[in-house]
């Protein structure tokens, strides 16, 4: 996960290309914005004319005609301001919302394109929170910029120009000085306050991660009675958020007080100057009203602009966290000119493969074997020997450190990753399902499959009787991660969706190791049907599931120590034979045992 903060310019540069796709809408919105502001600036001018007309009128005729026309004009300007603002909002809304959707989608797609290494290190709750805050901040930022910053700056420039042309230059100078001091003060204090917002976000993400992790592992928390421990961990992060939040609010009070002092001082000076000019006869009463209206009209949004500027900085901070995800480099990418995998020949070869997750720890060392097209090869060995790493490399979740993996004689790095993964199906040891219906989880193997194809996959996976026993059948929701189903039921769902995918290459990654003997035998028959006529890599702890394999490869500490058929390996009396005798003895004694020395090495070596 990236930790460093990008600067605001880099964040805006990331945002700009998405906005340029909707530049015509933004352009039209800006036209309406300018029209609204010109109408708004015209209000004090109309008010001046009305006051001067009333002040100098000497006959009833003038009073009856001129003020009425001006009052109607005044009303039209007020109405025009509202109409143009609403037109601006309507035109700009689509550009803002669509840009937000496009950016959110790009981040989501980028996260799926990152390697397994990133996802093993990520904190799901924190990433989710960063995306949520970042997406909402995009719309807020655009609204602040288009509806607050640009209009206010435009209005300040026009008002200063009017004051400079019509009155003493000091009016324009005081207005400009007040605005400048206001902006500088707001900028400096907001920059100083930014660290509190960053700390708030960090604590909020950690609290969210802790909460999600704890709720996902609800049963484990209950097993060990650690509700209090989880609450303490959650509260610790909430306290960090609380501390940063209090500091943020206290500093906000300082910011608002200073802004009010600057605006109040500037307005007071201008009114004293205007009153003096009226008393001296250099300005009319209408001019005084106009200056006052200009200042009120200008300083009200300017006062609001202080909080807007603060929120913009907050939005940029929140967007920075989301855009930083886009800065994470993709570890696995298609080479230039990569072609789809040709599945005419599905012979798989691991050619002198070396691999390590970390440079100081070798996982696979000179692994070399082949799986003939339509054949079944099993890889066995103790936990940590590197068996499951072979499956990850074949799926190209990682690239090999040395050697190569080929399918049909083609290096898998030379074909597109999408076509490679489309050709491979897997039934994993731990099947994780989506919190959706059985039908949706099975159809995940082929999203465009019809109901008849889904039903056939259910029958082939021996899942039909289970589905028939459910009141809602395939429309039954399986719960988060499929927790409403047993291990055997989840495995059958995994088999069904693999059948539906109908891949020419199949990986069975310890697909029955967590099941009881009865469930194992039942599911093994289904797996044998699925593997028939497919090029199959079996990764197993239990040797009883691989006795019919065309070749059995024995791994220890990342190296191949034996290879051969079941009978040939038994006759050699080596590592495989010892493991076979151990498992047979355990089964005879009806003890769970540890398949293949399961506890001899840490799981991270798998």
Please identify the structural class as seen in this structure. Answer: alpha/beta
Low-pLDDT sequence parts: 57-64, 591-606
Shape annotation: elongated
Count helical runs: 18
Spatial arrangement of strands, main beta sheet: 6-7-8-3-9-10
State mean pLDDT (0 to 100 scale).
80
The radius of gyration computed from the alpha-carbon positions, rounded to a whole number of angstroms, is: 35 Å
Query: What's the level 1 CATH class of the largest domain?
Result: Mainly Alpha
Mind telling me which CATH architecture of the largest domain this is? Up-down Bundle
Strands, total number: 10
Largest sheet properties: 6 strands, mixed
Q: Indicate the percent of residues in helices.
A: 55-70%
How much of the polypeptide forms β-strand, as a percent range? 5-15%
Order of helices and strands: HHHHHHHHHEEEHEEHEHHHHEHEEEHH
């Amino acid at each position: 996960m990236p930790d460093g903060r990008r600067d605001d310019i880099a964040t805006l540069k990331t945002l700009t290309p998405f906005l340029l796709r909707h530049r015509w809408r933004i352009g039209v919105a800006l036209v309406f914005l300018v029209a609204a502001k010109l109408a708004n600036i015209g209000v004090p001018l109309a008010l001046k004319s009305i006051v001067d007309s009333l002040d100098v009128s000497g006959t009833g005729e003038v009073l009856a005609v001129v003020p009425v026309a001006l009052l109607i004009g005044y009303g039209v300007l007020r109405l025009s301001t509202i109409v143009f603002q609403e037109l601006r909002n309507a035109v700009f809304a689509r550009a803002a919302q669509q840009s937000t959707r496009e950016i959110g989608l790009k981040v989501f797609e980028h996260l799926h394109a990152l390697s397994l290494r990133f996802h093993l290190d990520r904190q799901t709750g924190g990433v989710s929170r960063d995306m949520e805050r970042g997406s909402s901040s995009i719309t807020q930022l655009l609204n602040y910029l288009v509806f607050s910053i640009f209009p206010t700056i435009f209005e300040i420039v026009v008002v200063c120009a009017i004051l400079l042309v019509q009155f003493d230059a000091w009016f324009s100078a005081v207005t400009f000085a007040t605005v400048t001091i206001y902006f500088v003060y707001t900028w400096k204090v907001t920059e100083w306050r930014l660290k509190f917002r960053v700390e708030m976000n960090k604590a909020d993400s950690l609290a969210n991660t802790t909460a999600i992790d704890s709720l996902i592992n609800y049963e484990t928390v209950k097993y060990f009675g650690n509700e209090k421990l989880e609450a303490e961990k959650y509260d610790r992060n909430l306290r960090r958020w609380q501390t940063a939040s209090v500091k943020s609010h206290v500093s906000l009070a300082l910011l608002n007080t200073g802004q009010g002092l600057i605006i109040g001082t500037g307005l007071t000076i201008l009114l004293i100057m205007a009153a003096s000019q009226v008393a001296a006869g250099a300005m009319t009463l209408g001019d005084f009203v106009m200056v006052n209206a200009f200042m009120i009209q200008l300083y009200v949004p300017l006062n609001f602009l202080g909080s807007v500027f603060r929120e913009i900085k907050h939005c940029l901070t929140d967007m920075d966290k989301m855009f930083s995800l886009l800065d994470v480099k993709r570890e696995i990418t298609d080479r230039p000119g990569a072609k789809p995998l040709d599945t005419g020949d599905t012979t798989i070869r691991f050619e002198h493969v070396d691999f390590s997750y970390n440079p100081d720890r070798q996982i696979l060392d000179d692994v070399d074997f082949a799986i003939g097209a339509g054949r079944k090869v099993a890889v066995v060995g103790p936990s940590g020997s590197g068996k499951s790493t072979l499956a990850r490399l074949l799926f190209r979740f990682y690239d090999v450190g040395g050697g190569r993996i080929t399918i049909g004689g083609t290096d898998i790095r030379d074909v597109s990753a999408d076509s490679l993964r489309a050709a491979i199906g897997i039934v994993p040891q731990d099947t994780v399902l989506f919190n959706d219906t059985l039908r949706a989880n099975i159809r995940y193997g082929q999203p465009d499959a019809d109901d008849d194809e889904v039903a056939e996959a259910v029958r082939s996976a021996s899942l039909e009787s289970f589905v028939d026993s459910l009141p809602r059948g395939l429309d039954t929701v399986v719960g988060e991660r499929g927790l409403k189903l047993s291990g055997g039921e989840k495995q059958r769902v995994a088999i069904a969706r693999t059948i539906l995918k109908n891949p020419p290459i199949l990986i069975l990654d310890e697909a029955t190791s967590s099941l009881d003997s009865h469930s194992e035998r039942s599911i093994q028959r289904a797996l044998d049907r699925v593997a028939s006529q497919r090029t199959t890599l079996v990764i197993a702890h239990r040797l009883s599931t691989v006795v019919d394999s065309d070749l059995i490869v024995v791994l220890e500490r990342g190296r191949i120590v034996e290879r051969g058929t079941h009978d040939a390996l038994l006759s050699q009396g080596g590592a495989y034979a010892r493991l076979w005798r151990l498992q047979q003895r355990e089964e005879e004694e009806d003890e769970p045992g540890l398949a293949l020395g399961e506890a001899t090495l840490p799981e991270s070596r798998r």
